[in-house]
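Sequence design from tokenized structure. All designs in this work follow the same two-part layout: the structure record, then the generated sequence. An example of the structure record is given first.
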């Protein structure tokens, strides 16, 4: 029978005090070095560690030395002491946990933000890997997410921080992924599903699960002896061909994306081992999924980029993504045209797929087009995988393998008889419709002579002038309301109406206060509107 560990109530105030103490201890007022930033994020807790892991993949934002240091957050978190590990085991299994495990190594094999892994031996002598979740991890992360969202609300009052990047969406996605990682029952299902998808590939492996011993907080897996992918010297001494490993790794990752629609969303070197000539995938808590429709749209977008088709690329983004406002198709096509000019002329060997995909997502964000979680996780996964290949196998091009895989799958699915029949049907339909064109033209001329013809013009960028007019009308209305309140309150002050406050009739006093508050609010609104208008005008220039 499980026992619940008794812990003191974890309030928002206590979490805030804890964060302030950490900031004070790390003396951030005197600047940040790469190592200091890593230690600070690690001390602040798992939510900040997750943000640091995401930041480590953004070499376009942070200097290389900061990215290199933050990558250590993936597997070098401060470990839990063995005494705390034993308490967590007792909470899950009860007093008889010592009967289940003959031995547990006191030194963890790896320690991350959410959990750490220990080598262990079962009572029957089987060697296993024991993944144990940190105490109160869900509670801490949920408090941090609430803090972040409140901070965003405050930031929106003084600036339009949410117009370009939807931070709420990013936080929601990060929290959804973190919750997935914190449920080890889900990870156990991921391991089984991954094994099924890759069972026919002899060079791919992932550990099996001891389901009868696993819980939502503890995962018992098959122990795998191996060498991490980034320990290249050790792999070379063992006689491994790193180019061959890189090609196999890239081919398998492309298969996960295009064929399975079920891919590792965090493929950093600490999650990839080499054992007995096989590529071993571990830590499958964070897995991305793509529906068949998403995969087809992804392929369509790749085709549009290859053919430099602005319209098809825009339509693919609008089809895949979602937006809460009307999109200016003219501006979107203009941004897509600039994107294709930048990347359309590059050869496959020159193309950085992760950078290209990141910029494409940035275009969507500028137009308030949010991508589904699977696509954004795919972007980060590809970015990480390209970084891994650049270190372990620089000759391997993920883009070339992706292109060749797509070409092979397209060729294998091609039915020439059906294609020929479809082409004949299209030609037949086109011939029939073309015969009716003279009749359509005659009808149009008759309607024009009778004055019944109408010309409908679609101005795609009408939103901006309409928005400006709407803001001016709103400003005028607010000014009229404020003036009316002030005049009305002044007229009431000419009477002896009771009761009174400071010699002013109560109703008049309320009117003055309302006019003052309304005027102050209108002033803040006007400053923000003016600033936003200037930003739009500068962007156009």
């Amino acid at each position: 029978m499980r026992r619940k560990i008794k812990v003191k109530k974890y309030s928002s105030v206590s979490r805030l005090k804890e964060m302030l103490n950490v900031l004070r201890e790390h003396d951030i007022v005197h600047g940040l070095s790469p190592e200091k930033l890593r230690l600070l994020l690690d001390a602040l807790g798992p939510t900040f560690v997750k943000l640091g892991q995401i930041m480590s993949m953004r070499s376009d934002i942070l200097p290389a030395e900061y990215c290199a240091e933050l990558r250590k957050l993936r597997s070098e978190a401060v470990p839990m002491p063995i005494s705390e590990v034993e308490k967590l085991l007792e909470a899950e299994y009860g007093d008889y946990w010592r009967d289940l495990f003959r031995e547990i190594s006191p030194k963890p094999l790896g320690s991350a933000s959410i959990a750490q892994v220990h080598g262990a031996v079962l009572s029957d002598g089987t060697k296993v890997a024991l993944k144990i979740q940190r105490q109160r991890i869900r509670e801490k992360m949920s408090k941090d997410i609430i803090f972040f969202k409140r901070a965003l609300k405050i930031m929106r009052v003084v600036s339009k921080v949410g117009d370009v990047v939807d931070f709420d969406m990013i936080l929601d996605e990060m929290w959804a992924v973190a919750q997935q990682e914190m449920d080890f029952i889900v990870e156990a299902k991921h391991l089984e599903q991954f094994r099924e998808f890759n069972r026919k590939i002899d060079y791919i492996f992932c550990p099996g699960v001891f389901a009868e011993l696993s819980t939502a907080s503890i995962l018992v897996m098959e122990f795998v002896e191996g060498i991490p992918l980034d320990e290249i010297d050790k792999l070379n001494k063992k006689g491994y061909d790193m180019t061959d490993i890189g090609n196999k790794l890239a081919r398998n990752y492309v298969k996960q994306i295009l064929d399975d629609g079920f891919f590792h969303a965090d493929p950093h070197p600490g999650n990839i081992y080499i054992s007995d000539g096989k590529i071993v995938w571990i830590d499958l808590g964070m897995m991305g999924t793509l529906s068949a429709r998403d995969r087809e749209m992804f392929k369509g977008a790749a085709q549009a980029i290859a053919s430099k088709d602005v319209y098809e690329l825009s339509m693919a983004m609008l089809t895949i993504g979602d937006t809460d406002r009307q999109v200016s198709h003219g501006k979107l096509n203009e941004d897509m045209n600039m994107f294709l000019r930048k990347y359309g002329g590059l050869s496959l060997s020159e193309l950085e797929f992760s950078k290209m995909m990141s910029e494409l997502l940035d275009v969507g964000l500028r137009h308030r087009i949010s991508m589904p979680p699977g696509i954004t996780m795919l972007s980060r996964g590809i970015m990480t995988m390209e970084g891994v290949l650049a270190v372990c196998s620089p000759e391997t091009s993920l883009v070339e393998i992706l292109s060749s895989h797509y070409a092979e799958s397209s060729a294998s699915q091609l039915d020439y008889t059906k294609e020929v029949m479809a082409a004949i049907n299209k030609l037949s339909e086109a011939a029939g419709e073309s015969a009716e064109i003279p009749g359509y033209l005659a009808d149009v001329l008759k309607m024009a002579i009778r004055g019944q013809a109408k010309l409908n013009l679609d101005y795609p960028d009408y939103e901006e002038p309409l928005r400006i007019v709407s803001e001016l009308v709103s400003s005028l209305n607010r000014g009229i309301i404020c003036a009316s309140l002030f005049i009305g309150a002044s007229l009431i002050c000419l009477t002896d109406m009771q009761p009174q406050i400071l010699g002013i009739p109560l109703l008049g006093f309320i009117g003055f206060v309302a006019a003052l508050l309304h005027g102050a609010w209108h002033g803040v609104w006007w400053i923000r509107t003016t600033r936003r208008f200037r930003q739009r005008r500068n962007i156009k220039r």
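Residues 417-449 form one domain. We note this feature because it recurs in several other targets discussed in the main text.
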